[in-house]
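pls design
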């Protein structure tokens, strides 16, 4: 029996995945979470075999959550699933420690098979983005966002959404000073002289509207 923790902030979505996954006799959802904080508590209390988590959560972003879970347990097996088809999101989820990435537009069986692979400690990418991700990783053209750490990626994502340093600090449970330092490092890494340039670079490489 593969024991799952399902993390998504929409109860209807979680119910749909529960119905899908528990049709299989060897998959069971032992806990659900609607936020990153709930997910951390459930992970600590339940020790699931596989964590299936959405990258878009109301408190902490999924990429940051992946890093927190892996810091708690280096052997944590995590499958990210998301509405984002941009290779940037998949690359950051994998960099943070996820074993797999599946888009929400994938066929249901893709999700099921991905869970089996992650449970077996194998890497998996949904077929609809695998070619794009491979090309992005092989592309020699400079992509400054690829050099960001998972923490820097999450901070940039929240900056692009218009959050202040204080709000980002609350969201990620870090100090505003740490956010400010991270903001500076991000601009340095991507070569942005100011926040307007930073927003343009982020948009050019698939982050933000």
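designed seq:
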């Amino acid at each position: 029996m593969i024991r799952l923790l399902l993390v998504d902030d929409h109860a209807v979505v979680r119910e749909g995945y529960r119905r899908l996954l528990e049709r299989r006799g060897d998959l069971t959802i032992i806990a659900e979470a609607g936020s990153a904080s709930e997910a951390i508590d459930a992970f600590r209390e339940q020790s699931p075999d596989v964590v299936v988590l959405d990258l878009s959560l109301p408190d902490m972003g999924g990429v940051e959550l992946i890093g927190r879970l892996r810091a708690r347990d280096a052997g944590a097996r995590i499958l990210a699933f998301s509405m984002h088809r941009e290779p940037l999101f998949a690359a950051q989820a994998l960099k943070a420690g996820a074993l797999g990435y599946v888009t929400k537009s994938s066929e249901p069986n893709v999700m099921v098979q991905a869970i089996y692979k992650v449970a077996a400690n194998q890497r998996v990418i949904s077929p609809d983005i695998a070619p794009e991700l491979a090309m992005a990783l092989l592309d020699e053209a400079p992509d400054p966002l690829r050099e960001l750490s998972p923490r820097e990626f999450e901070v940039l994502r929240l900056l692009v959404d218009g959050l202040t340093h204080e709000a980002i600090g609350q969201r990620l449970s870090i100090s505003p000073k740490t956010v400010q330092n991270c903001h500076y490092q991000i601009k340095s890494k991507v070569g942005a002289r100011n926040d307007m340039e930073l927003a343009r670079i982020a948009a050019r490489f698939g982050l933000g509207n």
